[in-house]
Amino acid sequence: MEIIIQPDAAQSARLVAAFIARAMRRKPDLVLGLATGSTPVPLYRELIRRHREDGLDFSRVTAFNLDEYLGIGPDHPGSYRRFMQVQLFDHINLSPGHTHLPDGLAPDVEAHCRHYEAQIRASGGIDIQVLGIGSDGHIGFNEPSSSLASRTRTKTLTSRTRRDNARFFENPADVPVECITMGIGTIMESRICLLLAAGERKAEAVAGALEGPITAMNPASALQLHPDTRVFLDEAAAGKLKMRAYYDEVFARDVFWNKLRQEDGRTL
Ligand code: PGA
Fold it and tell me: Does 142 sit in the ligand 1 pocket, CB within 6 Å?
């Protein structure tokens, strides 16, 4: 794992956007795994800016989102489909047929989950998966105790997650109790994982995921077994890491990022 600590979330977003833009230049039909929540919003702003100002071309890109609430439709203001439209899809030239989220109203949920996995496989697999982390260590909606080998399926949300996400709903009681989420096994098959976290609220989950044992009690800790995960933290989210000085040293010496900074043409 490479752990990259930046002064703030905006700075992390610039680096991650540069990383994704470089991958899109090399592979215009990139398959991107996307996430919802507050964390990726600055990244989506950067991608939109690059699309508008630099012509970053999403026309051949395919996107798969991690999760969706069960029981609400794509037009519900709290749905993740709606979130993605408003925060990203409506502002870039990603073909609507290339955007995929689980369907919260699927009549046969199990068949739908199998189909979602099949669609990911048919696309050639996810090249780059963007991930946030819950304050309880969840990735996607894989709550603590999720099997580390899990596939796309329904999950029951913890009361903590429902509280954390209540801000996206008019009334906290409206937050659905169930969801469909890619499994941890699904996420682990992505070629590259980019985990983003910002704020003190995430510091404990981040420290557990990166420096604690691999455990279903902190689902993000499974990424310790992933061969190419890069973690982007702001100062507050990095606040409980023991090996902070080492991570900074590695990043400062990293040839890849130094080259990307020179190549990119934007101030990163
Ligand atoms: P957040 O959620 O970005 O809104 O903090 C992250 C998550 O739950 O994965």
Answer: no
